[in-house]
Amino acid sequence: MPIAPSTDAAFDVLGLGNAIVDVIAHASEELVRELGLVKGAMTLVDEARVEHLYERMGPAREVSGGSCANTMAALAALGGRPAFIGRVKDDQLGRVFAHDIRAAGVTFRSKPVSDGPATARCLIFVTPDAQRTMQTYLGACVELGPEDVEPELVAAASILYLEGYLWDRPEAKAACRKAIEIAHRHGRQVALTLSDPFCVGRWREEFRELVEREVDILFANEAEITALYEASSFDEALQEVRRHVRFAALTRGPKGSVVVRGEEVHVIDAAPVERLVDTTGAGDLYAAGFLYGLGRGFDLGACGRLGSLCAAEIIQQFGARAERPLAPLLDGLERA
Fold first, then answer.
1. Residue 130, domain member (yes or no)
2. What is the pLDDT of residues 212-227, one digit of tens each?
3. What pTM did the predictor assign?
4. Which residues are bridge partners to 218 per DSSP?
5. SS (H, E, C) 6-63
6. Which residues span the domain enclosing 72?
7. Is residue 175 part of a domain?
8. CB 3.0 to 4.6 Å from 12: which of 79, 146, 165, 295, for a disulfide?
C-alpha cells in the first residue's frame, strides 16, 4: 500500500543531527588493535585523544559528514528536497562542512558560532574487511540545543529525521523534543535512526518510549533493534517493534532488510555488489533511498528496494558521499 506524501511541504525531509567533518583513511587490523579501538563501533573521544589518533592515521580524505547529514546529501543526490540543522564553529572545518553540504544540494541555514569548541570531526579507520571504526570528537556539536531549532524549517518539512546519537547530550535531546513537538503540531511525520547499538544500550528505556509514543518511522540495523528490545534474535525483535511503531525499516547487511508495518512485512534482498570497499554510510544511504521513495508515494517494498540500491552503491566506494550520481538508480525501479 503506498504512503501518501505531504503535498504542502517545501522540503521532503529535515534532518537534525551532528555536523561533523569525516576524516577517512585505510587502516590495518594491527593498527586498530594497537590503538585500543573497538572495531566497528563509534566511540566518543576528547580533543587530546582525537589529535593523537589523527597523528597515527594514514593518508586521509576530509568531507562533510555525520550520519544524518550523509542521509540528507544522498536524498538530494536522488533529486529530493532535504534540509539540515546542525551546529558548527566559524573555523576552517566549519566552513568545509557548510560549503560541502550546500554544494550537495541540502538547505543549510544554521549560523556558525564564534566561540566554544571547534567544529566536530570523526576519524574513520577502514580495515581491509571494509568495516569502519569511528572515533568522534563532537566539538561544537555538544552545544547543539533548542535555540538551534528553527520552527519554520521544521514546519516546512514533510518528515523530521533525527539521529539517536543526539540523545547522549541533554541540550541536544531537548532540541529533538522541541522539533518533535513542532512537527506533530503541523501534522508532519517523525523518523528516528537508532544510530549505534552502544547508544541504544545507554538510552534503551527512553528510546522504547520515544518509539512507541512519538516516532512514525524507525530505522535500525540488526544489532540496534535486538539491543533495543534485549532480544535473543532478529525475529524476536521484529515481533516487538511491529507492535510499537507505525512502521520500521530494519537492515541486516548482506541479508538485506525487512520493512514492517503491522501485519504487512516486506523482506528485501541486498542489492548485488561487485566489490565491497567500505561499509561507511550504508545505513545512512539506505535511509535516504527509503525516505525518497516515501516522499514520492512508493509502497514500502519499493522504498526498501531503493534503500538497498543506495546502500549497495555506497559500499562499493570509499566514504559516505556518493561519487557517482544516485538518480539513475531510480531507472527501472518497480513500484508494487
1. no
2. 999 999 999 999 999 9
3. 0.89
4. 192, 248
5. CCCCCEEEEEECCCEEEEEEECCHHHHHHCCCCCCCEEECCHHHHHHHHHHCCCCEEE
6. 11-18+66-106+143-330
7. yes
8. 295
